[in-house]
Design a protein that fits this description.
By secondary structure, the chain is mainly alpha-helical. The protein has helices spanning 15-19, 35-48, 81-91, 99-118, 124-130, 163-175, 181-184, 190-204, 227-238, 247-253, 266-272, 274-284, 289-306, 314-335, and strands spanning 56-60, 71-75. Helix 13 (289-306) packs across helix 14 (314-335). Residues 333-342 have low confidence and may be disordered.
Length: 342
């Protein structure tokens, strides 16, 4: 059970003190946080399409829409700026940490939620477009970055992971009022999937859902573990180790000597300037943003594992790293490397 009494003042706690807190004691709510208007925006997008199925939103330990539940769990750390900073320091990135990313993930999870609400995966039109929902989720998947049979929404070509994810990604693109999906995907085979979603949504608009569960599985008050345990398990699950293929190049570019401890870590340096680096490289790689983002994320992770430091002239480091990232991104794009476990 959560502790009795007022929740801790997260803003005054050090990282070490914060990591000792239990998730159930954090006293977080979507209401009153920056998440609230985004959740309301998602509800409005559904309403404009006539999709009134009572979608519910709650704080959980990760992004999820549990099977049989027409709702969305949102990661707790997004509900407070202090926890967003802790998430970034522990995991190097914050999934859904910007308004744009958060809306993308909300729309994706709502795709699962509406599938659960109306049991869409049982319908013939769904199966014709996306395949069988009952097939097992793979431990690994190897996407084809050049494929046009799938929409491109979340990172890692996630639509290619499983039919359920294919539907959720396609729904997210369809739901976004600014996606202009008919124009963007006009020449793609993926257009047929978007049209299938359009037909399915037209069929259920204004109708009562088959499932109206008010459950909130994995809600934040049910987690009694401390933040330090949460992050230990999360790193073990999501960071099994980064590729060593970059090591020689990264060591040539960054310093790993003990004499450079006053220099910023290479991981922090690259995170700080990631937007600038990404802007250069995307132009050189003909707009392959998802590939660039993936390789950049893993190179930053490997810099952290190696303890490298960014010693030297800033602009020269940025230019040299941009060239290095371009080479590795193009190598990945045209040769195809396997992704880490989901």
């Amino acid at each position: 059970m959560a502790r009795r009494g007022p929740p801790p003042d997260l803003d005054v706690l050090s990282d070490d003190e914060l990591l000792e807190q239990r998730l159930c004691d954090l006293g977080l709510r979507i209401e009153g946080s920056w998440l609230e208007p985004l959740v309301e925006q998602a509800r409005r997008e559904l309403s404009r399409r006539g999709l009134e199925f009572g979608a519910r939103f709650w704080l959980s330990d990760e992004w999820l829409s549990p099977a049989g539940v027409p709702g969305v769990g949102v990661p707790f750390y997004l509900a407070h700026p202090r926890l967003i900073r802790l998430e970034r320091s522990q995991m190097l990135e914050v999934e859904g940490g910007t308004r744009k990313q958060c809306m993308m993930l909300l729309r994706h999870e709502l795709g699962h939620a509406i599938d659960h609400a109306y049991r869409l995966h049982r319908r013939q039109r769904w199966r014709e477009a996306f395949g069988s929902s009952s097939q097992p989720y793979p431990e690994w998947y190897r996407p084809n970055p050049a494929s046009r049979r799938f929409v491109q929404h979340l990172d890692a070509w996630y639509a290619q992971a499983h039919p359920d994810e294919d539907f959720a990604e396609t729904f997210a693109v369809w739901l976004n009022p600014r996606s202009r999906w008919r124009e963007r995907y006009a020449t793609w085979p993926a257009l047929r999937k978007l049209e299938a979603v359009d037909q399915l949504m037209d069929a259920i608009a204004g109708t009562e859902p088959a499932v109206r569960s008010r459950e909130r599985p994995y809600s934040l008050p049910s987690f009694r573990l401390r933040l330090k345990t949460y992050y230990k398990r999360k790193r073990e699950r999501f960071n099994p180790g980064y590729s060593t293929n970059y090591d020689d190049d990264l060591r040539r570019l960054f310093d790993e000597g003990t004499n450079s401890k006053r220099a910023p870590t290479a991981a922090a340096f690259l995170r700080k300037h990631s937007a600038e680096i990404r802007g250069h490289v995307v132009r050189w790689t003909e707009g392959q943003e998802l590939t660039v983002d993936y390789v950049l994320r893993h190179m930053i992770g490997r810099c952290r594992e190696l303890g490298l430091r960014a010693k030297g002239p800033k602009q020269q480091l940025l230019m040299d790293f941009s060239i290095l990232l371009t080479v590795h991104s193009m190598t990945y794009l045209y040769r195809g490397r396997e992704w880490h476990a989901m």
